[in-house]
Design a protein that fits this description.
Radius of gyration: 27 Å
Distance between the termini: 30 Å
Number of domains: 3
Strand order of the largest sheet: 1-2-5-4-3
Largest sheet: 5 strands, antiparallel
Order of helices and strands: HHHHHHHHEHHEHHHHHEEHEHH
């Protein structure tokens, strides 16, 4: 369909029409856009940038690219201060590129500011450091290392930077008796329609004070909160990495099909599913997910009785040495305690089921 208003039903472009489209400043080629990095051509990288990445031995450029799905470029894409829409919408991407180009301190050959923060934050998560201890460690590093070191001042500042690389979650209020989620049609309810329990926690001050006036002045605290980690952006993240995207087709292209059971794709259930839904099975990139859940006590060996239930999704497209590894487990729901949900777990699965139906 020709975008020109003079010939809306034209399927063959005339010479005059094509010339007008190319020279029109609102529709034609952007000035300075000589390297088509957004239309399939790979970006050009200078030798200095390549040398710096080799010296640092951390593929942070690859990490940032996998997160945002675009390549960085050192050359201006448009002239005269213009920017194409893709660049304008991905300002966070260029912020990370800037952080990665900044050395940890002058003449540092191994870490950039971004790579060091990511490694340090990873250690915090692995070993369960408290937020306060992390901030104290940053203070010690800034005091011990050269004065020109570029480090955030606290855990809060570090989290603000690193959180842009991660995927967030949503909080959904729930009835403390596991009756409903205050979500969808119940989003604006203040009291559970099934058991008449309040959506909010009540304190002694609320009971002994001036009733509703006292509770309204103070910030309301929900009685129970479900953490919901949306599935769509996590599936998109799998296909943003070229290596993982290739592995997502392993079950169809690289699996050894000799009758032995090594992977769920070798099972009769998988084959029966393919026979029942032939259109779905035609594309090996379509995602097969396994769902698992179990309760655990987050307080370890303490005597307190508590049961928190995570719901995990496992992408079975991946080979067995990847799909059952922690980096590829996708946390979908975190159901709070203190008691197990039992048969009421279906109440908490509603957001996941709805998104699976959409997909």
């Amino acid at each position: 369909m020709c975008p020109c208003t003079k010939c809306p039903n034209c399927h063959s472009y005339s010479r005059v029409c094509v010339y007008e489209h190319l020279t029109d400043p609102h529709r034609g080629f952007l000035r300075g856009y000589r390297h088509w990095i957004y239309h399939g051509e790979k970006p050009r990288t200078s030798s200095s940038a390549t040398k710096q990445n080799v010296e640092m031995e951390h593929d942070m450029d690859g990490l940032v690219h996998d997160v945002f799905g675009i390549h960085s470029t050192e050359e201006p894409i448009c002239g005269e201060g213009e920017r194409i829409p893709e660049v304008r919408e991905n300002s966070k991407f260029y912020e990370f590129v800037k952080e990665n180009e900044q050395m940890l301190y002058p003449n540092c050959k191994k870490y950039s500011k971004l790579s060091f923060m990511v490694h340090l934050y990873h250690l915090k998560c692995l070993h369960g450091w408290s937020d306060k201890s992390f901030s104290m460690l940053l203070d010690l590093l800034r005091d011990a290392l050269p004065e020109e070191i570029f480090l955030p001042k606290s855990y809060y500042e570090t989290k603000k930077i690193v959180s842009g690389l991660s995927l967030g979650y949503e909080k959904i209020h729930a009835c403390p008796n596991d009756c409903i989620l205050y979500w969808d049609k119940y989003a604006k309810y203040e009291v559970c329609p099934k058991c008449s329990t309040s959506r909010w926690k009540t304190t002694n001050e609320d009971v002994q004070g001036n009733g509703m006036e006292t509770s309204e002045r103070r910030k309301k605290i929900p009685a129970k909160i479900l953490r919901w980690f949306p599935l769509k952006p996590r599936l998109q993240r799998l296909y943003m990495s070229s290596k993982v995207a290739e592995s997502m087709r392993w079950h169809h292209e690289s699996r050894l099909n000799d009758g032995s059971l090594r992977h769920p794709a070798d099972s009769l259930a998988w084959k029966n599913f393919d026979a029942r839904y032939p259109t779905f099975s035609l594309d090996p990139r379509n995602v097969r997910l396994g769902v698992a859940s179990d309760g655990f006590n987050p307080f370890k060996t303490m005597s307190i009785t508590h049961s928190t239930w995570p719901v995990i999704l496992i992408p079975y497209n991946l080979p067995p040495w990847m799909c059952m590894k922690q980096p590829y487990f996708m946390l979908s729901l975190l159901i709070p305690g203190p008691k197990g949900t039992g048969n009421n777990i279906d109440i908490y699965l509603q957001p996941l089921v709805q998104q699976l139906q959409e997909l």
